[in-house]
Amino acid sequence: AVCMHCGLPAVTLEKGRQGVLVTGPGEVGDKLDANLREKLRAWLEANPQLGLAGGKWLDQKIPRLPVVFVGGVSERSAAAIVASLEALGFDAKAFAGSALKQPEVRSKARKLAGRIMLVALGSTAGIWQQGAVVAGVMGVVGIGAMVGVTAHSAKAVTRKSGRARAALSEPMRRALAAVEALVPTLDEARHRHGLRAIVRRTLALAERSAVGSEAETELAAAMTRAAAGTAALARIDANLRSRDLNASDDDTRQLLLARDQAAGQLLALAGDLERLDARAGAATDGALDDEDLVALRQKIEALEEVESL
C-alpha cells in the first residue's frame, strides 16, 4: 500500500499505459550509482506488495541512465512509484506509451551505439583497405548495434514477481488511499514502521477474504482507524518535542498520557491482527470467523477514541 522504507506511497501495481523512467542523478549513458542501485534493490525487497522484483540488468549488472524502471502501469501507480523513487534519491518521471518515445531513452541508445561503433572501428582499422565490401558489412553491423541497443535501452529493469495483491473492494481502496495520504506527513520512521505492521497484516488477512465481504469491510475500517490513530500519535509527539519534559505541568502530563493511550491502542491492534493472521492461516478455509470479527470491531472502536486526541 505504501513504501514504509522511504515513507512515501508505493501502491500495488495497476495495469495501464504509463511507465516510470529513472533519469538521474547522472548524465545520459552513465552507470547508475552503485549505492543507489543497492537502495533500489532493498526498496523492492521491502515492498513486496508492489508485485515487482529486480530483473537481470538490476540484480546482476549496473544499468546505465536513463533506466526504464517499469512499464504498463496505471497513472496512479506510476505517480506513486515516482514519489517513492525521488525520496530514495533518484530523479524519476512518469511517461505515457512506449519508452522509445522518450528523448532520454533515444539519446542513451545513440550514445551507447556510438561507443560500440568507435570500439568496432578501432579494432578493425586494419581491414578497411579491403574496400566497399567491408564498408558495407560495417554499415550493417552499425545498424544492428543501433537496433539492439535501442531495444535494450527501452527494456524495464524490473519484472513482475507475481506477488501483486488481488482486486480490492471500494472500502479497502479508500483505506489504502487514507494511508497513502498520511505517510508522506510522518517525519518519524517509528510511526511509519508501526503503521507498516498494521497495513501488512491487514492486507494479508484481506487476501484470505472475499472481495466485498464483511471481513474485508472490517479490515478496511481497521486500516482507516490505524491511519487516523497514527496521525494523532504523530501530532502528540510533535507537540511534546516543543516542550520541556522535565518541567511536567498538567498539560504535558495529559499529552504524555494521550501518547501512551494512542501507542497502546495501535500496538494492541497490530498484535490482534497478527494473532488473527496466524489463526486464519491455520484454518482450513483461511477466513475470519464471527468471533474474530467481534474482536476486530472492539479494537476499531477503541481506536475511534484515539482519533480525537
SSE arrangement:
Elements: E1 2-3, E2 8-9, E3 15-24, H1 34-46, E4 52-54, H2 56-59, E5 67-73, H3 75-88, E6 91-96, H4 103-123, H5 132-153, E7 158-160, H6 170-182, H7 189-207, H8 214-241, H9 250-282, H10 290-307
Antiparallel strand pairs: 1-2, 3-5, 3-6, 4-7
Task: Explain the overall architecture.
A hairpin with a 4-residue loop joins strand 1 (2-3) and strand 2 (8-9). The chain has ten helices and seven strands. Helix content is 60%, strand content 11%. The longest helix has 33 residues, at 250-282. It is elongated.
Average of pLDDT: 80
Portion in beta strands: 5-15%
Identify the overall geometry: elongated
Number of helices: 10
* Helix vs. strand class: mainly alpha
Helix content: 55-70%
Major beta sheet summary: 3 strands, antiparallel
| Cα-atom radius of gyration | 26 Å
Order of helices and strands: EEEHEHEHEHHEHHHHH
In short:
With 309 residues, the chain is mostly helical.
Which labels suit this protein?
mainly alpha, two-stranded antiparallel ribbon, elongated, 10 helices, 60% helix, 3-stranded antiparallel beta sheet, 309 residues, 11% strand
